[in-house]
Amino acid sequence: MDTSKHLDPSDLFSAKGLTVVITGGGSGIGLAFATSLARSGAEKVYLLGRRIKNLEDAANSIDPNIVKPVQCDVSDPSSVDAAVKQIEKESSHIDVLINNAGVTGPMQTDVHKAQSVQELQEILKRDWSGWDTAFQTNTSAIVAVSAAFLHLLDAGNKKRGWATGRREVQERAEGAEFDASDPRTSQIITVASIASFNRYLTAGLAYSATKAGAAMLGKALATLLAPFGIRSNVIAPGRFPSDMTAGDKTSFPVSQIPASRSGSYEDMASMILFLVGKSGAYHNGNVQVIDGGRLSMMPATY
Fold it and tell me: Which CATH architecture best describes the domain 9-297?
């Protein structure tokens, strides 16, 4: 057996020909995704977000022929449906959906400074309304957005030659005419956070709870959608540059982050190219922690 026949890194980690939708794609990690995908050969990358000017600026900074801005509030199902219809006018399918939109919610990081039970009570009771917004964007929207794009993800499988519909006993390849050199099926990628697993709550209670829900949903979707040939994986980033961490320091002692630094856009670009490329074709239901070792230095379960 010639093991080297298909081991071309430029092919294994390529986004060539893919149609991708990214929520929260106008800045930070989402923008890093869009840039790396477009430069790696993606056919179309749709950026969804509330601030259309940010999306337009992002598209123009990369390649407006490939990257397309679509205004959308992921916490509003009618807005999501409108975005799907807009994308359908240009594309008959999508290959990858990246659930990346997120908000911080009430921080409440001062819980660790409380000197009395009464003080702790006041901190924990603060800003309850902010929890609703955080859950709608970080957690509920994952189900709503994924559901809205399922038919286009299914169409992506059909375009690749895979048998579609529910398959629980038969092999998905049975009766199909897919490219044996490219075994990928359509995929949902959910961006959670290491806050999903960190019990010290460095990012606040609401953010940690909503991202824990996001990670769980990403794994649950892998099981739910397996009979339909649609994969689901999760990325759990540590500290990366974004609107949420603007102004934060970028270097850290080893006792906090063994890598001694924040994550870079190059780190995140390599992760997304791994997952969307042929390199990630056999991955389903996985959580990819990318944090420079930070979870190793705090109480965490993952």
Answer: 3-Layer(aba) Sandwich (3.40)
